[in-house]
Amino acid sequence: MKRIAIIGAGISGLCAAKIFLKAGFNVTVFEKAESIGGFWAKEKLHTFINHQATKDEYSFSDFKMPLGYPEHPSGEQVYEYLLNYCREFDLLKTIQLNHEVIEMDWNGRIWSLNIDRQDTLITESFHYVIICSGALNETKIPFYPNLQNFLANGGQVVHSSEVESIEQLKNKRVLVSGFAKSGTDVVSYPSGYLYSETSVYQNEESKLSRFLANNPHAKYRLYSRLSETLFNFHSETRIQKIAHAIYKSLIWLQLRGLELFFKWQYGLRRIDIIPERKTDEVSINGLGVETGNFYEKNGLYKIKSIQSSIKEYTNEGVLLTDGSKLKADLIIHDTSIIQDVLFLSPMYRSKLRDKNGRLRLYRNIISPEIPNIAFVGFNSNSFSPVNSEVAAYWVLRLVNEQIKLPSKEEMLESICSSLLWRMKESPLALEYSNTYISSTNHRNLEELLMDMGLRSKRTSSVIVG
Fold first, then answer.
1. I need a surface site. Which of 106, 216, 335, 384 has the fewest CB within 10 A?
2. Can you say whether residue 166 is alpha, beta or left, with left for phi > 0 and alpha for psi between -120 and 50 degrees?
3. Which residues pair with 112 in a beta bridge?
4. Cα–Cα distance between 284 and 277 in angstroms, integer?
5. R_g over Cα of the chain
6. Cα(405)–Cα(450) distance, integer angstroms
7. For the chain, how long is the longest CA-to-CA vector?
8. How much is the mean pLDDT over the chain?
9. How confident is the chain (465 residues) per 10-residue block, as mean pLDDT?
């Protein structure tokens, strides 16, 4: 019986474990944290933050979230859902918590994993390794001068992913640097518990409302086949290319109209927060949905937003590039979370990336140059559970030799074509996970289904898809 190692017990690791366990493999899941869940692990619970995706979008295909959950479940509810998923499919017996994979070595036949088990080093061997450590897994806080002075005077500096409870924020002057979802959540949801809250951003990007004039819901506008027709795809048929050429101007007008509508709906001119990047420039990497009534609270002056950037720390806060000073007790950097797999050797890590640092994965799942390794969850999207499920089934068929891959050269050419397309369609791609497929989700899933010899079944509605 082949031994399968799965690194990470988040959304992707859990569904991969279920699929391979059901197929009769000997499965071991290594999780460095104290609990399952990945981003939603118990010790990381953002209990005051609701998920950007809905419960329908963030459910596994064979295990739906409870009907009693709100449309946008809390972090605590997502964790309970994942724990119940483990219980339902008897996965807990496969999971080794507090086990961090620190090194991997391929001997030409099997992978040897060196694992830190609470300060005890152990080694185990596996035929195949599935990496589910998350498309964004290494935080990066930018350096600014005079940090030590700020810390010596009682100041605190953390990454937005490290904010776990309102207690960390309570009665503090909180300054958030950045405009991604986590940062705006941190200053929006706990409003009223904080002494003061300030958002400092360099580039304001479009955030869509969950409702368009109160109806319909965002999930029907953002995550459908219809919404995907707004964007090109790296492997289109001749008919699709002709259709895009014909409708290019119409699509441009639709997007500009949508931007104008949201400026009016949010009153963005009144609160002086005008998006600088066009919707289509941001959407290809994952267009954010406004949560926590961020814009409304700016209008009510519960949150102060400033378009600038930090120049350096001061004893009491920060000095901005525009010369103004802000006082803060806690500074939260809502900045880059990068993709990395530090447990792979430098030789293999260099094969994973091109010279610009972008991951080179065929179908966002395998590297043609690294044997017996797959990445599940690196085709990330708001539909993460479904994307991970399909990717895991694809890997299962690959391991069972039920998928005929193109030649190494053909796969490398496909990867190169995909990366060039992304850079052409969105010069901002390097600011995000270059495996994020929000704007082409359905078409990516169809590619995987076709590889497996399966047909996708569409609904009769072009809106839902």
1. 216
2. alpha
3. 105, 125
4. 12
5. 23
6. 12
7. 65
8. 81
9. 95 97 98 92 72 85 94 90 98 97 95 96 97 76 94 93 80 84 70 59 60 55 59 67 69 76 77 70 58 70 80 95 92 76 89 82 94 88 80 97 95 88 64 58 84 73 46
| Tokens at 26, concatenated | 């000997």
74 three-state secondary structure: strand
pLDDT tens-digit map of 318-352: 999 999 999 999 998 887 666 678 899 989 988 98
The DSSP code for 52 is: S
Please indicate whether the domains covering 3-138+338-434 and 142-336 agree at the CATH topology level.
Answer: yes
Contact 134, 31 (CB under 8 A): no
What is the third-level CATH fold of 3-138+338-434?
FAD/NAD(P)-binding domain (3.50.50)
Beta strands in 215-256 (DSSP E): none
pLDDT of residue 227: 60
- CATH topology for 142-336? FAD/NAD(P)-binding domain (3.50.50)
Alpha-carbon distances, residue 410 vs 100, 356, 417, 454 (angstroms): 35, 21, 10, 22
The span from the CA of 208 to the CA of 262, in Å, is: 7
For the beta carbon of residue 80, count every other beta carbon within 10 angstroms.
18
Task: Output the DSSP codes for 96-120.
Answer: EETEEEEEEEE-SS-EEEEEEETTE
Query: Which pLDDT value is given to residue 449?
Result: 92
The conformational region for residue 172 under phi > 0 = left, psi -120 to 50 = alpha, else beta, is beta
Q: Are 446 and 300 in contact (CB under 8 A)?
A: no
pLDDT score of 335: 74
Spatial distance between the Cα atoms of 200 and 176, rounded to a whole number of angstroms: 6
Query: What was the pLDDT predicted at 46?
Result: 65
Q: What is the pLDDT of residue 463?
A: 42
pLDDT of residue 458: 56
CA atoms within 13 A on the CB side of 233: 24
Beta bridge partners of 312: 319
State the Cα–Cα distance between residues 414 and 233, nearest whole angstrom: 13
Cα distance between residue 429 and residue 171, in whole Å: 37
* Domain ranges across the chain: 3-138+338-434, 142-336
> Tell me, what's the pLDDT at 464?
46
Contact, 384 vs 12, CB < 8 A?
yes
